[in-house]
Amino acid sequence: MLIVHELPFIYQLHELMARDPAAAQAEAAAQMATRADPVERLALRLLQAICHARLGNYVQAEYELTRALRQAKQRGMHYLVAEARDELAAICLMRGQIDAALRQWLDCFDAALQEDSRFGLVRAHLGIGKVLFALGKHDEAKEQHLRSVELSYALKDNSMNSAIHLCLAADYLKLAEFDRAYVALAIAEDNLAHSPYPDKHRSELLIYRSQIRAGRGEWHKAVNELDEAIRMATAGHYNWHHAFAELESGRVHFVLNRLATARSHLLIASSKAHSIASHLLEMQAEELLYSISKQEQRYEEALVHHRRYTELTLELIDNQNRHQIDPTTRRRLRRMESELALAQSEQENSSLMARLQSHEQHIQALKIEAETDPLTGVFNRRALEDRLQRELYTATQLSRPFSLLMLDIDHFKQVNDRFSHLTGDAVLKTVAELIQSCCRQDEFITRYGGEEFVILLPGAGADTARHIAERIRLKISHHDWFTLHPELLTLTISIGTAELQAGESTHDLLARADAHLYQAKAGGRNRTCC
Ligand SMILES: Nc1nc2c(ncn2[C@@H]2O[C@H](COP(=O)(O)OP(=O)(O)OP(=O)(O)O)[C@@H](O)[C@H]2O)c(=O)[nH]1
């Protein structure tokens, strides 16, 4: 079976396409006139279609790709089928048509299997990973991307390798595994030196690197990297990258409270994203524009942005496969729809401010639901990531102390094993209540893992943190646990504390508290280590 990728003239055209899609398209048209071989002609047609996509003509690209796909299927050219499906899937994903993208990549996988095309398989894994990423299943996305790393090893395709490692970096960033993200970016960067798409991938790389910087509170470096990413994406007409970089820039300036600059970046992000039908990017830009307008008390504008944000959210979710979305999200969405309808019918007789407040409350309710641990009612780990980053930023800006506690129930497995899982659950709930009773309103309590809790203490130095930790530890050890189970006589906890040090990242701070917790366990449990 002919491996089209090995047709030298096609390979050269691919390289040209990376630098100059318009020139590649013209060259492919010229070659078409001279070639009679049906495989070669089809490969050229496909390449022309891909050029349309690279030039941002997605409707035309989709039409041409679908035609090429039909012909490739008729002729049993599975490699070309895989390639066309890969491109079609990418367009679907960019538009937020998650379900369609997933189906295309699964079909791409089948076609690649039929021809034993490693390129096709790598692309399918890469793409399926992107879909899972878009669905928020970052762990599963990472697995798919790692699989494509394995498969691509023998291909020695630098461009593909940089693309895969960029995806991996994005997964790790979402999983808050910053060190791994950093390594993935370094590998992507190594590969970039030999890739025909250096600027496109480099702009993406800079965006991810800026996210790592932001995670570490290095805001100014993040701004510089994003400026460079915007410059590259603009020069290369990489619309998606441009929109993404503007969005991230808007986000960083927003955190830095430079609202006017943030707004101008976000307006570009939103319009760029709109022009390429990237609902996901547009939605995020509109959400931030809404927050900025509200903060500046420009309520009329805020309402417009919120409307657009809600519309896009609904559109995105509507596009997703119903089975891929868990029932809670769907219920939340239905509620959001009715809320929107309600807001519209109230339009005439309520003031702008009142309507905004109702949107705000609704969003607040959704946010609380998404950030709450259902068993204990305290915040979950997802909420912690967000909050911790903000607290670190505030503490640094105000030069105010900040500490956190990491707390773990001792020998909790024995509670489950001896008295049942239900008793274990009741213990977890009671521990959460007892912690709450020892904390102030602004002290943020989260269930970090199974029987582990993290508590954020804004304004607390090391001594105060130790004092609060001891108060919680004693409260729990003195509690009448037999009320939960007659044979449960004692229950203790171990705590590690850490006070924020200058220049420390969220990851470092958590790691230090974790190390102290480990010391407390190793030292015999039922104690606090600082
Ligand atoms: N009941 C209940 N148990 C849970 C939940 N989440 C995690 N666990 C259990 O928590 C236990 C944690 O056990 P280990 O990590 O071995 O720790 P441990 O027994 O507390 O021992 P040390 O931490 O070393 O003192 C496991 O048995 C988990 O199954 C939950 O939501 N409910």
Fold and architecture overview:
This protein has 530 residues and is mainly α. The protein has 23 helices and 5 strands. It has helices at 8-19, 21-34, 38-54, 58-74, 78-94, 98-115, 118-134, 138-152, 158-174, 178-192, 198-215, 219-236, 239-255, 259-275, 279-295, 299-319, 327-345, 352-371, 381-398, 412-419, 421-438, 462-477, 506-522; strands at 402-409, 444-447, 452-458, 493-499, 528-529. Strand 4, helix 23 (506-522) and strand 5 (528-529) form a beta-alpha-beta unit. The chain starts with 7 loop residues before the first helix and ends with a strand. The structure holds guanosine-5'-triphosphate. Guanosine-5'-triphosphate binds next to strand 1, helix 20 and helix 21.
Helices and strands in order, then pairings?
Blueprint: H1 8-19, H2 21-34, H3 38-54, H4 58-74, H5 78-94, H6 98-115, H7 118-134, H8 138-152, H9 158-174, H10 178-192, H11 198-215, H12 219-236, H13 239-255, H14 259-275, H15 279-295, H16 299-319, H17 327-345, H18 352-371, H19 381-398, E1 402-409, H20 412-419, H21 421-438, E2 444-447, E3 452-458, H22 462-477, E4 493-499, H23 506-522, E5 528-529
Parallel strand pairs: 4-5
Antiparallel strand pairs: 1-3, 1-4, 2-3
Helix pairs in contact: 1-2, 1-3, 2-3, 3-4, 3-5, 4-5, 5-6, 5-7, 6-7, 7-8, 8-9, 9-10, 9-11, 10-11, 11-12, 11-13, 12-13, 13-14, 13-15, 14-15, 15-16, 16-17, 16-18, 17-18, 20-21, 21-22
Bound molecules: guanosine-5'-triphosphate.
